[in-house]
Amino acid sequence: MTPSRLLTPLGLGLLLGLIAFIVFGPLLNLALWAFAEQWFYPHTLPTVWGFDFWARVFRPRAGAWSSLTNTLIVALSAVALSMALAVPAGYALARLPLPGRHAIMLLFLLPQAFPNLPIFVNIAAIFHQLGLTGTLIGVVLVHALPGLVYAVWIATAAFAAADRNLEEAARNLGATPLRTFVDVTLPQALPGLLAAAIFVFLDSVDEFTGTFFVGAPEITTLPLLMFNASMGGNYQVAAITSLILLIPSIGFMLVIERFLKADVLSRIGR
């Protein structure tokens, strides 16, 4: 084999190795900090390993359990609120001849078109006047705002991908519009709707800025706990919290890959 032919697989291997290092390098560092009890310069690896910091994180006084509970309550509530608005909105945008449909779709993207910081600062000021700062309801509302972007766009694509011939067949057999929607349209759109709900859940679980300005210090979630630990130099606690946050993200992304089909993805934004 000539040197020029050897360079191609060698370059490809180096590129894949670089990508793997960029992706898995930070995760490896998190894993090292999560089980390191002593790690000081100039040692390359921790000198003492153990689970002592895991026990500290999950002590009742550490606040991890309450933060995890708040995280799950807020995320599930944000999913329920976002999907309650996204399902009728997505169906209307996909099936009804609405004037200015594309403009309406773009309106849902506006929260993502600007930096999060000034948006959440202004939301916090409005919520303070309404008495919603430091409340669970206020945090749920601020988490549902970015979640609506995923929910509405994916729900619209899911309903647009549903086979209308099956709906027409059900109507010809005497099914009412509501019965047709429940028995024919909704089951076809359900995989896309589940994917949208998972996107909202993952976005809420990882949300920090909105929770910080609207909920802190009364409402503490895992991202806030991780931030406070890292700012205080408690890198083991921050690493453990990060690994906990990774578990639902990795698991649900595998679910999304299974349920979000190509025909739904091809209709997003249409």
UniProtKB/TrEMBL annotation:
Q: What is this protein called?
A: ABC transporter permease subunit
Q: Which domain of life is it from?
A: Bacteria
Topology relative to the membrane, per the entry? Multi-pass membrane protein
Localization per Swiss-Prot or TrEMBL: Cell inner membrane; Cell membrane
Instruction: Specify the ABC transmembrane type-1 domain's residue ranges.
Output: 68-256
Annotated keywords:
Cell inner membrane, Cell membrane, Membrane, Transmembrane, Transmembrane helix, Transport
Membrane spanning stretches: 12-36, 72-94, 106-130, 136-160, 181-202, 235-260
User: Which CDD domains did the record assign?
Assistant: TM_PBP2 (cd06261)
The family line of this record is: Belongs to the binding-protein-dependent transport system permease family.
Q: Which PANTHER family match?
A: INNER MEMBRANE ABC TRANSPORTER PERMEASE PROTEIN YDCV (PTHR43357)
Instruction: Enumerate the Gene3D superfamilies for this protein.
Output: MetI-like (1.10.3720.10)
Its chief place of residence is membrane
Q: Does the keyword Protease apply?
A: no
